[in-house]
Each structure stands twice: as structure tokens, then as C-alpha cells.
């Protein structure tokens, strides 16, 4: 894994632009929320309605801040956006193109590395980690919430009646 300075040096040698080039195609991505996204809020409302109590953005360790935690159950929940985290169903399936192609590929790689690191850190601190896709929450927030709160989930680590996508719970 390269640190930022090494990555920048390598990109300079390869002639890769270090600055994002503003394009019309990418304009809708500016100013995206990092916390309290629509899928997070949807899931939190469903968890609360199902009787679950949680804490928001609780830092478990440096570099590990789940979207919310269920402290009584010691469960850390990450709601991963399909685009940003590479959902197998809705994530990008073709190589990046355009003036920012290398930067996008690098960003998505960093996202993946950060997901793995935060999962590992939470586990090392004794938390059970659940990562759910944005699309799963949008399809059935109540079902995901019931799954998080179920005794079956706690004993098996699998959300009940959940389509496995290879991403959660990890």
C-alpha cells in the first residue's frame, strides 16, 4: 500500500494529473454528503421503529467511525453507497475514462482499503461489523433493520433472508 507522497511521486512519473479536472459529467458529485445520507437516515429510522437504540458516528478507533453503532449489541453498522464502495450489483463495471480516470481509480482503491481497515479496527476493538449496501437499504429498510436486531443475526452473523452480495456483513 502506497502512502500519499509515494503515490503522488509515482503519478508524476507516469504523467498522471494530480488535480481533478471539472467536467459536466461529474458536476453532480460535488458536495455529496459524507454523513446522514438518505440511506443511512432511512435505515436508522427503521431500526428505531423496530425498537433498536443506537449512537451516531461513534469513533471506535482512530480511522474507524461507523455510520452508527448499536452499543447494547456491540454492533457497528456501515451503510456503503453503491457508487463509492463498488456494489457488485450497481457499482462501476467498466474502466474509468476521461481526464480524471486515474484519480477515480485511485480514489475507489482508497475507499476499498479504508473499508477493510475500518472493519479490521472495529473487530480488533471487539465490535461485530455489519456492512450493508445502499441498494439493500433502499429496497427494504425494515427488513434490514429487523435483521440487525434479530437473535438469529447475532448468533450467525448473517442477516436473515439476505441476498449475499459478497460485501456484508464482514
Q: If you had to describe this structure to a student in words, what would you say it looks like?
A:
This protein is an alpha+beta fold and 170 residues long. 42% of the residues lie in helices and 10% in strands. The protein is built from seven helices and four strands, in the order ααβββααβααα. A four-stranded mixed sheet has the order 1-2-3-4. Helix 2 crosses helix 6. The radius of gyration is 18 Å and the shape is globular. It starts with a helix and ends in a 14-residue tail after the last helix. 25% of the residues are buried. The model is unreliable at 161-170 (pLDDT under 50).
What key phrases describe this protein's structure?
170 residues; alpha+beta; four-stranded mixed sheet; globular; disordered C terminus
**Spans with pLDDT under 50 lasting ≥5 residues?**
161-170
> How do the strands line up in the largest sheet?
1-2-3-4
> Approximately what portion of the residues adopt beta-strand conformation?
5-15%
Radius of gyration: 18 Å
Overall number of strands: 4
State the separation between the terminal residues, measured CA to CA.
21 Å
Query: What proportion of the residues is helical, as a percent range?
Result: 40-55%
One letter per element, helices H and strands E, the order comes to HHEEEHHEHHH
Number of helices: 7
Largest sheet: 4 strands, mixed
Estimate the global geometry from the Cα principal axes.
globular
Structural class comes to alpha+beta
What is the mean pLDDT?
Answer: 82
Amino acid at each position: 500500500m502506497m502512502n500519499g507522497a509515494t503515490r503522488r511521486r509515482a503519478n508524476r512519473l507516469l504523467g498522471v494529473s494530480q488535480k481533478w479536472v471539472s467536467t459536466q459529467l461529474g458536476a453532480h458529485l460535488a458536495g455529496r454528503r459524507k454523513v446522514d445520507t438518505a440511506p443511512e437516515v432511512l435505515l436508522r429510522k427503521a431500526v428505531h421503529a423496530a425498537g433498536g437504540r443506537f449512537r451516531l458516528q461513534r469513533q471506535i478507533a482512530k480511522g474507524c467511525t461507523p455510520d452508527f453503532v448499536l452499543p447494547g449489541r456491540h454492533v457497528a453498522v456501515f451503510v456503503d453507497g453503491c457508487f463509492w464502495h463498488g456494489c457488485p450489483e450497481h457499482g462501476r463495471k467498466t474502466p474509468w475514462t476521461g481526464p480524471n480516470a486515474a484519480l477515480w481509480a485511485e480514489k475507489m482503491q482508497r475507499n476499498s482499503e479504508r473499508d477493510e481497515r475500518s472493519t479490521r479496527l472495529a473487530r480488533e476493538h471487539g465490535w461485530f461489523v455489519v456492512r450493508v449496501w445502499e441498494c439493500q437499504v433502499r429496497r427494504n429498510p425494515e427488513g434490514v433493520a429487523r435483521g440487525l436486531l434479530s437473535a438469529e443475526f447475532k448468533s450467525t452473523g448473517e442477516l436473515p433472508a439476505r441476498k449475499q452480495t459478497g460485501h456484508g456483513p464482514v
